[in-house]
Specification:
Layout (H helix, E strand, L loop, with lengths): L1 H13 L6 E6 L4 H16 L3 E6 L10 E5 L8 H4 L5 H21 L1 H9 L5 E5 L8 H6 L3 E5 L5 H4 L18 H33 L6 H4 L3 E6 L15 E3 L13 H8 L5 E5 L6 H4 L2 H13 L4 E5 L11 E4 L4 H5 L4 E6 L3 H10 L3 E3 L6 H10 L3 E3 L7 H13 L2 H14 L5 H14 L15 H4 L2 H42 L1
Parallel strand pairs: 1-2, 1-4, 2-3, 4-5, 5-6, 6-7, 8-9, 8-11, 9-10, 11-12, 12-13
Helix pairs in contact: 4-8, 12-16, 14-17
Bound molecules: 2-acetamido-2-deoxy-beta-D-glucopyranose (3 copies).
Length: about 500
């Protein structure tokens, strides 16, 4: 009885904010970013909040107090983005014109226009950002605190909202020496230049067309209350976080749904184990892999029979070996949770990597672009994954990597340890996310979390001026020492040479 009361009491104190009105804006071309972001908003509705979600994909769910409206017209970036041969520079420059075109497309949506006309009151707006900061104009217009959800780990793109330090903590970077750090700083600068000089000016102009008197993006960026990061120290290298940047990695992996009948039977019958092959939603096998690479993968997979393989592919593969079941859609998280699953072959997107860690499944990582190399790099570093570069795929290399994962038990041991690190928290990542969102609503924006770094220039924050001062000081001291020593030496020299002369005169 007492226990019952305690539980009831805890439930009451846990929900500090009752039925808040929350708007979600998920303007992304990436299905995997959408899935994680919309999961967060659906969970908020399930805890009793009234959620209105505007998104580019439809979830077709029936949850009380959860209304979803479809945003149309978004343009998906082309192949340049996903070609593993493109440098970061090429990727970004292919990307910029499309991101800018998508600004107009966003505002043209009737659902967005209706928000502008009716100006409803919300207690918070949750925005998914990725090179689309112009969306922040909407929470500003609605006068609601802005919460950002980022499908990536902390990086220069999302650090700027809350002055979280961009330092080379990402696994391997600091240890790989000067050039790795130089590369890291260069990437930071490139991203800054792209955002400030290639995206912001045009996005600002279009914003003004739809919302007169809207402040420029650089001002909007500085009024973000909270950044929720889909990462966790079990998945990435430990690194610093300011209090209003919160790690919620794993929040979407906990709920494992029942598998469709055919997949359940297939996996249950895989007594020797099963493998899941999935390159996510952004990598396309028909474009990103060559025919001979796909053939190499298929024959490598054929060799591991009787182990069964679930293979996600948007194209038919008639040459698939008997132990490989090809499907154009697979419920990844639910499959990874199956006890017979032995290896996850993945491109290393953060969502999939998190799911593999959560369920303790070793990975064979074939990274293509964006943060995938980092994610797989971290996993290799902690002994949970084997990395295989795309252009090194042959039947031999692929089979050797797979064989290593299947026969060496340390990968599974490390995966189980990481899984336990991710699960072993004072509250689940999902509860943590909800607590922080409610905290921002309760304190109407959370001004108390805003750190002083928000007011500083980058060279003040990273104390470049102080280091320059010390460097100058050292140079001055060295110069003075040099002059003094030269002066003393000259006097000594003159004394040594001068004395006998004087003596001769006497
Ligand atoms: C829906 O939201 C309203 C308040 O906005 C609340 O009174 C009601 O209980 C919510 N319904 C559910 C099923 O959570
Ligand atoms: C990437 O470069 C390699 C070597 O230059 C080339 O063989 C391959 O076709 C390229 N891949 C793509 C997808 O363009
Ligand atoms: C900053 O956000 C608060 C709500 O958290 C809002 O009241 C204020 O108008 C915003 N300021 C700007 C410049 O967007």
């Amino acid at each position: 009885m007492i226990l019952k009361w305690l539980i009831a009491l805890m439930a009451i104190t846990y929900t500090q904010v009752e039925a808040a009105r929350i708007l979600g804006l998920i303007w992304t071309f990436s299905r995997s970013h959408h899935i994680a972001g919309s999961t967060l908003l659906k969970e908020l509705a399930k805890t009793g909040h009234e959620v209105h979600l505007l998104s580019t994909y439809n979830d077709n769910v029936d949850i009380p107090n959860f209304t979803q409206e479809l945003l149309t017209g978004i343009i998906v970036p082309g192949d340049g983005m996903s070609n593993p041969n493109s440098s970061v520079f090429t990727m970004l420059f292919d990307f910029v014109p499309i991101m800018n075109k998508n600004v107009e497309k966003f505002w043209e949506n009737e659902a967005v226009q209706k928000l502008i006309r009716t100006k409803p009151k919300y207690d918070a707006v949750i925005v998914l950002t990725f090179f689309n900061d112009f969306v922040l104009a909407l929470p500003h217009y609605l006068k609601a605190p802005t919460i950002i959800y980022s499908s990536m780990s902390s990086n220069p793109i999302n650090n700027k909202y809350v002055a979280n330090p961009s330092l080379p903590y990402a696994t391997g970077l600091a240890k790989n020496g000067f050039f790795a750090r130089l590369n890291f700083v260069t990437l930071n600068v490139v991203i800054y230049v792209i955002e400030a000089y290639f995206l912001a000016p045009l996005q600002n102009r279009i914003n003004e067309k739809y919302l007169p008197d809207v402040p420029p993006i650089e001002v909007l960026n500085k009024n973000v209350s909270l950044v929720l990061i889909n990462s966790h120290y079990a998945i990435e290298g430990p690194r610093p976080y300011v209090p209003n940047m919160v790690q919620i990695g794993g929040f979407h992996t906990r709920e494992v749904k029942k598998l469709p009948e055919n997949l359940q039977t297939y996996l249950d019958s895989a007594k020797d184990g099963a493998i899941l092959f999935s390159m996510g939603t952004n990598v396309k096998l028909s474009k990103n892999l060559q025919r001979n690479q796909l053939d190499a993968i298929m024959s490598g997979l054929g060799k591991v029979a009787p182990i069964k393989v679930l293979f996600k592919s948007e194209i038919d593969i008639p040459s698939a070996p008997e132990n490989v079941l090809v499907s154009n859609w697979l419920p990844q998280n639910d499959i990874l949770a199956h006890p017979n699953l032995k290896v996850f072959i993945s491109h290393g997107g953060l969502a999939g990597t998190t799911e593999a860690v959560y369920h303790g499944v070793p990975m064979l990582g074939i990274p293509f672009f964006a943060d995938q190399k980092f994610n797989i790099g971290s996993m290799s570093e902690v002994g949970l994954a084997v990395t295989l570069d795309v252009d090194r795929i042959t039947e031999q290399t692929f089979y050797a990597a797979l064989e290593e994962l299947l026969t060496n038990p340390t990968y599974s041991t490390n995966a189980k340890k990481r899984s336990s690190l991710l699960k072993n928290q004072p509250v689940s990542s999902l509860q943590k996310a909800i607590w922080w969102i409610e905290h921002i609503i309760e304190y109407k924006g959370g001004e108390h979390l805003r750190n002083v770094g928000m007011e500083l220039e980058w060279y003040h924050l990273y104390m470049v001026d102080v280091m320059a001062f010390f460097l100058a000081l050292i140079l001055v001291v060295l110069a003075i020492s040099f002059i003094v020593i030269r002066w003393v030496l000259r006097i000594l020299y003159n004394i040594c040479r001068g004395k006998p002369k004087k003596e001769k005169k006497h």
